Amino acid sequence: MYRYDEFDAQLVRERVQQFRGQVDRRLSGELKEDEFKPLRLQNGVYLQLHAYMLRVAVPYGQLSPSKMRRLARIARVYDRGYGHFTTRQNIQFNWVALKDIPDVLEELAEVEMHAIQTSGNCIRNTTSDHYAGATKDEVMDPRPWCEIIRQWSTFHPEFAFLPRKFKIAVTAAEHDRAAIKVHDIGLNIRQKNGEVGFEVFVGGGQGRTPHIAAKVADFVPERELLDYLEAIMRVYNRFGRRDNKYKARIKILVAETGEEEFRRLVEEEYAAQREHEKIDLPQDEIDRIHAYFAPPALEARPATSESFERAKTADPAFARWTRANLHEHKVDGYTTVTVSLKPLGVAPGDATDTQMMVVAHLAETYGHDDIRVTHAQNLVLPHIALDDLYDVYRELDAAGLATPNEGLISDMIVCPGLDYCNLANARSIPVGMAIQEAFADPDDQADIGKFHINISGCINACGHHHVGHVGILGVDRKGEEYYQITLGGRADEKAAIGAIAGPGLKAEDVPVALKRLVDRYRELRTSKDESFIETFEREGMDAFKEAIYAGA
Amino acid sequence: MPLIKNRQEVDDIWAFVPDDAPLSPGGCITVSLGRFRSEQELLLARNTEIGVRLEPADDPHELEDHLERLSLIEISFPKYTDGRGYSQAQVLRRRLAYEGELRAVGHVLRDQILYMNRSGFDAFETERAELPSIIEALEEFSVFYQPAADGAKTVFARRHSKD
């Protein structure tokens, strides 16, 4: 994992001091709320329904045990004993007092963390594949480039007041787990004739007007990446719409300009860069950053583990968990574990301070000090020996962290909704919980297989409903909450925006409608190996629409 | 309105002439890009120093052929949230090598001044912040990752510099 050097540490210290001054000026009344707003926003501080919320950056979703323990401490001392992991692989605290935030930032700085650019109209946390560095299907580890982008985008003087927020995602795997095609910029790392380069997608996004990104470059060589990104950012900063915040994302610029003309503008800006404008990242620097991400020293083990096999036979609950929550590791004898933050009855993505301590302990004892946050709001222990797996499982289970549902129907992405957020039109968490209850039986979930339900409480789509296999969007109609269902969305390499199935349903009708939808899928699937989304793509909307509205 | 230039409060000898007002015969004046375009000959023939004020949508490349004649370019920030001026400044300084005064006018706040300075501004017209506070803002950071118009050495380069 990347470690700060003297420069990184100095910058974060200076930021804490700066923000302390800004908070002092706000508390003394020298700064009015409207003047303080842009400053707190660039530091992840939002004014929510009930209190200030602090969003802390977890660059590309990677944490160490010491970082996780510090987050647990912040949850315990400054919040109400829990934190909320977000779809941007970050964590937010919902109940921190404004006067305490400089102290929290200081505590974060001590473990090489910060809240820089976790909000505001600037370049946000770069996200990536949560299995990076562990998965078999990647051409290389994408994290070094995420770190390079993190540094380049931190306090970029030209791009701090963009038309709107800006999100970059990077993957290097065949199967896209970073949703790059629904990002402002999506980067796919490739290798060609021994050279590393980037396939560049621009203008994807969700929100009110979802778009799948357009490809603007096939292969930007690694040395040129930051200069190419500068060209895209400048075109966006100059030409992105500023007259209407709902049309200000780069996806609208790409759509209104046209892909070809947009590409031409970027190429023109890129070609106009003069030699002294180039960032010219030294090769030594690229190598230095890559060195931090060397694979952990995993001792050689046989591909199968006797103790693991024995435990599976002896403990059916463990066996079920291993069927759902493991991902194949690139090294024999190891596996990648998803720690589910989606047990029944808990807001998705929430973890208590105690749970964070348990995960930190497991990562330290068994997991080579590595922890990831996923954009589906779970945690991951990327490098666990099969021989240790049963011990890890039992500790997770005792802490309520062993729900066997990774990628299954109860592993939903859900925004905070009207319970917390002042943008929301409808509640999301209670609807999610009702669906979880309807599909509570783990055997039933395993039988249904891969099934992504994403729920947003308003059209801003923080719950990613457009790209859920089933998307649920809360709308307010004359003071009553209704839920609109979309089908067929996906965020992976076959990214697609879901289509609206029909009129909105009342909250209490959503779980039964989904029950009927799932039953229909079971009737139509060719075998248990055909997932819901595959069946949907083969059969089309009509076959499923009828099931949703059959009771109406 | 107070003018801070090169970290000092200075008297402002310049006057912006609105498009519908007649050009004064003497004195240092700035005009809009539109007026500069339409009355270019008259303006360039003056015996005084001249300047142009850019609005956010203006393309600084339009001034490319006249940069040596211009002593001042003002970049207007109607709202601090409109960040186009930062790109205009970087283009003028780094791509077009403009060396005269580059002044931020309009909604110029203390906490944006460091970014402005990095982007190439050397003068700030602001009624909202006092000089000591502006100098403090300029010194809040000593570490920068990106190359910009201020010429500060980047962290990427400092890490590998031999000296």
Write the layout of secondary structure elements.
The complex is a heterodimer of chains A (552) and B (163).
Chain A: H1 6-27, H2 33-41, E1 45-47, E2 52-56, E3 62-63, H3 65-78, E4 82-85, E5 91-93, H4 101-110, E6 127-128, H5 143-153, E7 168-171, E8 185-192, E9 195-202, E10 214-221, H6 225-239, H7 250-257, H8 259-272, H9 283-291, H10 306-314, H11 316-325, E11 326-328, E12 334-339, E13 350-352, H12 353-365, E14 371-373, E15 379-385, H13 389-398, E16 413-414, H14 429-438, H15 442-448, E17 453-456, E18 470-477, E19 480-487, E20 499-500, E21 505-506, H16 510-524, H17 532-539, H18 541-549
Parallel strand pairs in A: 6-7, 7-8, 16-17, 17-18
Antiparallel strand pairs in A: 1-2, 2-5, 3-14, 4-5, 4-13, 8-9, 9-10, 11-12, 12-15, 14-15, 18-19, 19-20, 19-21
Helix pairs in contact in A: 1-2, 1-4, 3-12, 5-9, 6-8, 7-8, 10-11, 14-16, 16-17, 16-18
Chain B: E1 3-5, E2 8-10, E3 14-16, E4 28-32, H1 33-38, H2 40-44, E5 50-54, E6 70-77, H3 84-95, E7 101-106, H4 113-119, E8 123-125, H5 131-138, H6 155-158
Parallel strand pairs in B: 3-4, 4-5, 5-6, 6-7, 7-8
Antiparallel strand pairs in B: 1-2, 1-8
What does this molecule look like?
- The complex is a heterodimer of chains A (552) and B (163).
- By secondary structure, chain A is α+β, with helices and mostly antiparallel strands.
- Chain A has helices at residues 6-27, 33-41, 65-78, 101-110, 143-153, 225-239, 250-257, 259-272, 283-291, 306-314, 316-325, 353-365, 389-398, 429-438, 442-448, 510-524, 532-539, 541-549; strands at 45-47, 52-56, 62-63, 82-85, 91-93, 127-128, 168-171, 185-192, 195-202, 214-221, 326-328, 334-339, 350-352, 371-373, 379-385, 413-414, 453-456, 470-477, 480-487, 499-500, 505-506.
- Chain A has four domains: 6-110, Alpha-Beta Complex (Sulfite Reductase Hemoprotein, domain 2); 142-291, Sulfite Reductase Hemoprotein, domain 1 (2-Layer Sandwich); 306-398, Sulfite Reductase Hemoprotein, domain 2 (Alpha-Beta Complex), CATH 3.90.480; 413-549, Sulfite Reductase Hemoprotein, domain 1.
- In chain A, the strands form four sheets. In chain A, strands 16, 17, 18, 19, 20 and 21 form a six-stranded mixed sheet that branches. In chain A, strands 1-2-5-4-13 form a five-stranded antiparallel sheet. Chain A has a five-stranded antiparallel sheet with strand order 3-14-15-12-11.
- Chain A starts with 5 loop residues before the first helix and ends with a helix.
- The model of chain A has no long low-confidence stretch (mean pLDDT 95).
- Chain B is of the alpha/beta class and 163 residues long.
- Chain B has an eight-stranded mixed sheet.
- The N and C termini of chain B lie far apart (44 Å).
- The model of chain B has no long low-confidence stretch (mean pLDDT 94).
